[in-house]
Amino acid sequence: MQLSERILGLTGGGSDGWDLFNKARQMMADGVDVTELTIGEHDIRTAAPILQEMHRTALQGHTGYASIPGTAALRDAVAARTEALTGVKTRRENVVITPGGQAALFAAHIAVCDPGDTALYVDPYYATYPGTIRGASALPRSVRARAEDAFQPREDDLRAAAEGARSLLVNSPNNPTGVIYSASTWEGIARVCTEADLWLISDEVYDSQVWEGEHISPRALPGMADRTLVVGSMSKSHAMTGSRCGWLIGPEDAIAQLITLSTHTNYGVPGYIQDASSYALGLGPEFEAEIAAPFRRRRALAQDILSAQNTVGLIPSGGAMYLMLDIRATGLSGDDFADKLLDTHHIAVMPGESFGAAASGHVRVAMTIEDAAFADALRMICRFAERLAR
């Protein structure tokens, strides 16, 4: 029997970007001691009080069908957090709860793109973006950001790509680069969206991880609230990656239709997960800062280590739990460098090419192991690059 072209074509006929990660995991399964700096998984687990609340509410019986749009308490908590962070008035009716940020990304493209519509995204990009767009039966079109611009997308490049497009997906703080879009970048994005009548899908799951500069949500820009859908999640801000609780924020009429989509797809998020998420959001920004603190600290460690050598370059990282390292001085692609590093030193990093052509000659490092081990691994990466460069 023949499967659908939609599912067969999710990766566009190429790799899904996870080859190095899968190789490292197989080595670990075979008993090899691998230092894993690949995925954005906290080295701490979900905090005990959040798990205790999850347990308490499950024992009390919130294990049946939960409210499909999200519980009133969680939608109110997400709305309050969003309004406090952005200054944009946000009500329960602007929020739908989803099974994590990835489901929100898919739902957003289903909501704004018809089959065959062109959906833009910025390269470098999180590895699932093009497949998510294809899964929604839209046509992905990348807009290349440049390393020499610190991967800030240029307004002229966005404008040139926007003809005939329906949506634009952006991500700041950015995975994989750690870049935070500047005010001028956001102004250019807003102008292009307005001129080309694009929906803007803003992936803001790293909004609690800001080290330098300011996180700007484009929904707060003049004229953008009615054409912006914001993706959020408990995963990064509260170390709740496995709980799979996220959301979409947008205009009330769009959210009403997205609630209908939830009815016909995931049928909501488990009630005890939503209750725990409401409790976690109630812990406030101080708790989010505590979860983010290790990455801020490790970024400072990395800056010190990298400043002491001149082979590996660091893309200016303003946020998120990643560093993008420029290894072009070695003469290798990111794929080849990462593969040799894994084979030689059993350190796993993600090749830049996993995140698009714009990041070729780079590797992404996740700052997700304890400080001393992270510093040791980064020093080894630098020494390895220096040997290759010679």
In short:
With 390 residues, the protein is α/β, with parallel strands linked by helices. The chain contains 14 helices and twelve strands.
Describe the structure.
The protein is α/β, with parallel strands linked by helices and 390 residues long. The chain folds into 2 domains: 5-45 and 286-389, Aspartate Aminotransferase, domain 1 (Alpha-Beta Complex), CATH 3.90.1150; 64-283, Aspartate Aminotransferase, domain 2 (3-Layer(aba) Sandwich), CATH 3.40.640. Helix content is 43%, strand content 15%. It contains 14 helices and 12 strands. It has helices at residues 5-8, 19-29, 48-59, 72-86, 100-112, 129-135, 155-162, 183-196, 234-237, 252-264, 271-281, 284-307, 334-345, 371-389; strands spanning 35-37, 95-98, 118-123, 139-144, 165-171, 199-203, 228-233, 246-249, 313-314, 322-326, 347-351, 362-366. The chain has a 7-stranded mixed sheet, with helices on both faces. Strands 1-11-12-10-9 form a 5-stranded mixed sheet. A hairpin with a 7-residue loop joins strand 9 (313-314) and strand 10 (322-326). The radius of gyration is 21 Å and the shape is globular. InterPro entries: Aminotransferase_I/II_large, AspAT/PAT-like, PyrdxlP-dep_Trfase, PyrdxlP-dep_Trfase_major, PyrdxlP-dep_Trfase_small. This is aspartate transaminase. It catalyses: L-aspartate + 2-oxoglutarate = oxaloacetate + L-glutamate.
